[in-house]
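Thought: the user wants the 3D structure for the chain below. I'll pass the sequence to the structure tool as-is, report back what it returns, then summarize two notable features.
Action: structure_tool
Action Input:
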Amino acid sequence: MKKVKKAVIPAAGLGVRFLPATKAQPKEMLPIVDKPAIQYIVEEIIESGINEILIITGKSKRSIVDHFDKSLELEVRLEEKGNAELLEMVQELGKLADIYYTRQKEPLGLGHAVYCARQFVRDEPFAVLLGDDIVQSDRPCLRQLMDLYDQVQSTVIAVMEVPQEEVSKYGILDAVQEQPGIYRISDLVEKPSQDNAPSRLAIMGRYIIEPGIFPVLAGAEPGAGGEIQLTDALKVLCREQAMYGLAFQGKRYDVGNKLGYLQATVEFALARPDLSGAFREYLRTLCAKINEPV
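Observation:
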């Protein structure tokens, strides 16, 4: 039985929705409270039982590499100051997993970014996790996909029902439910209009993909937005082999847009024992001020 042992994080995007903050800093390094967004993704991968990770980087992404590397100067400074707790935290970052990097030299789309992972993946099934989606769940979202993959031995995509007015923002499935929360996919459509969407089942930022995707991507033509779309390649692969959608358990935050980023920051802060008390009181005071009569 094939097992998923490798994960890929595409992180080469320009992050234009967060300019000017992302002019010289990757959007993946924007913090949710005090932890970069990409670290939540890496931790989900590790908690799912995968220790080989490839991050697809691009221009101005050096800080991602530095974040997961050993920082000797910082460690010495923390040790000199006797700050054992922060020292341990910094040291653990360099031990999280075997993290590799390759660069997407041109911003040609998500499909092309995944194609850049072909030498790392070779002929194995692999996970893809987008840095824009953070999922809070009791059982890691990726682990849920891996459990289904163990049963079906074929490509599995994380999905979620979205309102009809939002279907044009996502890749949408044409699928039939085989079991509660498990869908057999017959087709995929990238950002359809409301009138042409086959369902409200939207693709979220988690995939387990068979290596047969690489020959498809090799011959792929630009699609929506003039980019090589992963959804278009999955559409072709779907005609060649079985493909499934999984309505995962958990709450998804789209930290790739400003509102989703703010929601994640507030809710993650409220879940922190060291912050929740004072932060809740601040929010109560703020709400009271907002509701004061003018």
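Final Answer: Structure generated. The domain at 6-256 is CATH 3.90.550.10 (Spore Coat Polysaccharide Biosynthesis Protein SpsA; Chain A). The longest strand covers residues 171-179.
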